[in-house]
Amino acid sequence: MRFGIGMTSDRGRFMPSLKDYLLRELNLFNRSAELQERFGSTDNAEFIKFIETEAIIFFRELQEVGIPFPPSQEMLTVGGETDLRLFLSIGFACFESIRRNIPDDVEPPIKLLDFGIGCARTMRFFFREMDKFHCYGSDVDRKAIGYVQNSIPLIKAQLTENLPPLPYPKEFFDLVYSVSVFSHLDYESFNSWLGEIYRILNWRGVFQVTIHGERAFSIVSNEPERRNLIRISENEFNLKRNSFEETGFVWMKQPAGSTDIDTSQFGISFISRTQFERLIRPYFELVEYIDGEIGGWQDLVVLRKGTI
């Protein structure tokens, strides 16, 4: 039975179809001389990006069997906007960064967790590789988790708490990534969650995490309009800005998009590379530190589970 976009099961749960999605993508390509000239092949990485970030917005045949768009409120919570093109392009860019930086020796099938999944802005793009990844997601936002559970069944999504532990066994995952979560945690929560990610990763498991480093702190220090855009209080910033140079870490209050988020520990944080490496030392080995990888703003760090 078909309802609007996508298929539903007898219980009414949305069931995206990768097989149908790829077939309709191919049909779209075959009937368009413009797409054939522009991309040459459906295997072209730029064609896949076009499908996932532009074509899906305009072509109903893709929407009917693909992953549905989240409610506008959940888009606001995760990104502060409801522009679908921007939402998808940012999510796809994050996906590409995560996917590109998975070490070669982490082989499929990969048990993968998106820590702080929100409405799956990043993880939705693993749809194409569902044969290689067993996808899990966790978040404190009840509405976001409800959307993922009902609309993206390839992801096993669970509601979690603002503090550890997570509802997963020890050494359960091969790979955990977290986009724009640790970049908002206060010092104590930052350290606590490092230990929890260590617990749920298997031996030599990989953790990819984004943080606000020196680059981001320099931007907010030199651009008052950026501070206003991300709603940092000028008074608090002026009071705390020196602590970044003194300690390598600063945390400030910031409004949250969901009432499920504990704003006593979740605001916006900045950490120097030196301080970050000191904090991870008991848990992880540094594989790669990529400055400004996420939108020229957040740094992406690839870590490997070590020994305590």
What do these coordinates show?
There is one protein chain. The protein is of the alpha/beta class and 308 residues long. The chain has two domains: 1-66, no CATH class; 81-308, Rossmann fold (3-Layer(aba) Sandwich), CATH 3.40.50. It has helices at residues 18-30, 33-39, 45-58, 60-63, 72-79, 84-100, 142-151, 187-200, 214-222, 224-229, 234-247, 273-280, and strands at residues 7-8, 14-15, 110-115, 133-139, 155-159, 173-178, 201-211, 249-252, 268-271, 284-294, 298-305. A seven-stranded mixed sheet has the order 5-4-3-6-7-11-10. It has a two-stranded antiparallel sheet with strand order 1-2. The model is unreliable at 1-6 (pLDDT under 50).
Give a short overview.
This protein has 308 residues and is α/β, with parallel strands linked by helices. It has helices at 18-30, 33-39, 45-58, 60-63, 72-79, 84-100, 142-151, 187-200, 214-222, 224-229, 234-247, 273-280, and strands at residues 7-8, 14-15, 110-115, 133-139, 155-159, 173-178, 201-211, 249-252, 268-271, 284-294, 298-305.
Overall shape: it is globular
- Helix tally equals 12
Portion of residues in helices? 40-55%
Q: What fraction of the residues are assigned to beta strands by DSSP?
A: 15-25%
As for the number of domains, it is: 2
What is the CA-atom radius of gyration, in angstroms? 20 Å
Largest sheet strand order: 5-4-3-6-7-11-10
Question: What is the tally of beta strands?
Answer: 11
The CATH topology name of the largest domain reads Rossmann fold
CATH class of the largest domain: Alpha Beta
Mean pLDDT: 94
H and E string? EEHHHHHHEEHEEHEHHHEEHEE
Would you identify the CATH H-level superfamily of the largest domain? Vaccinia Virus protein VP39
